Amino acid sequence: MSNDVKAAVDAAFREEWGRVVATLIRVTGDWDLAEECAQDAFAMALQRWPRDGIPGRPGAWLTTAARNRAIDVLRRRTVGAVKLREVAAMSADPEPSPFAPETDHSGVPDDRLRLMFTCCHPALSLEARVALTLRTLAGLTTAEIARAFLASEPTMAKRLVRAKQKIQRAGIPYRIPPAHLLPERLPGVLGVLYLLFNEGYSATAGADLIRHGLSAEAIRLGRVLDRLMPSEPEAAGLLALMLMHDSRRAARLDASGDLVPLEEQDRGLWDAASIGEGVLVLEAALRHGQPGPYQVQAAIAACHVTAARAADTDWTQIAGLYGQLARFLPTPVVELNRAVAVGMAEGPEAGLALVAAVEAEGKLTGYYLLPATKADLLRRLGRGGDAAVCYREALELASTDAERRYLSRRLAETGSG
Length: 417
Prior knowledge:
- The protein has helices at residues 3-28, 31-52, 58-77, 81-88, 111-119, 126-136, 142-148, 153-170, 182-201, 212-228, 233-246, 272-286, 293-305, 315-328, 332-346, 348-361, 369-380, 384-397, 401-413.
- It has 417 residues and is mainly alpha-helical.
- Among the domains are: 1-96; 316-359, no CATH class; 366-417, no CATH class.
């Protein structure tokens, strides 16, 4: 297979997966069937495009292939002629759309964002909405979603199955909500964009720590959402957060692809335009006087990216902001981050005391950043032997090559490698 064909299929997956799946869900009402047929269509493209050439409209080709596959499956299932006729009636010529224009009363100008609002139905729990949307529209694997939620893959698979079953049992329609219902679906959409950005900014597994395409798409959709809902400060807060994190992208890896910690990054490589835009967006959000978790996280990011040197970072303010964030998100991950900030503001021993409290709860077992954080605080205290034990534990749990290389370097620095 030529590199051109592989690149075309990869690009089609990024651009068309959500549309193909959404089209089939809308017509068949069967989420599993839609995903299965979409997967078959992309597998077929890998087989046929090298022989027949890359089609001029990959999305139309893929949707037609998926539709034909759905017809075959439904025929074998003999589920009835009505549903079969509906699928067969999908036109193979014009670019298929999951939604007829006359049914779109949402005012959402972006097709992918419309799909996200459609998928984030309030009848599901927030976690189920976000997970199902990431799986169905963004094409993230169940394993990737499980790591994002700090859950095991079998547990997440069961949750996704239950969510799909609830939709089918309740007869929840797969259609765009009208504009007045968008706010109730906003938390789910924000959660999707946040985790989509995070998977691109710091991948949960694989050789590449950064998957720029995912984070860039999340920022693009964040801008669309902020313009669409200017009275929603959390949408602006999320956009500001993503912009400020992404501003450091060029400095996060060295020439060898190894992870560079924040305090050692070359701040001259940071994107000043993204920082400036992020700060302005955050200031506009804060003027609403309705603080929320994304705005607080953006404020934390602003403390980092506006410091001229690592030594200028206001860790006391960051520790206080994490305390505020914990009131919105009382999670062990937030407490672990607060422990880091307190360790920088008040000394490693204070940070270790908070890490010990998180560790005692047992909710972050298997999360590599728990022993990695503990190791770093021990290293700062000069307790190299104890730090080495924790670095080894973190190494066993880390899931990306860049993270493992970084931890290996830190372990070697303890003299116990």
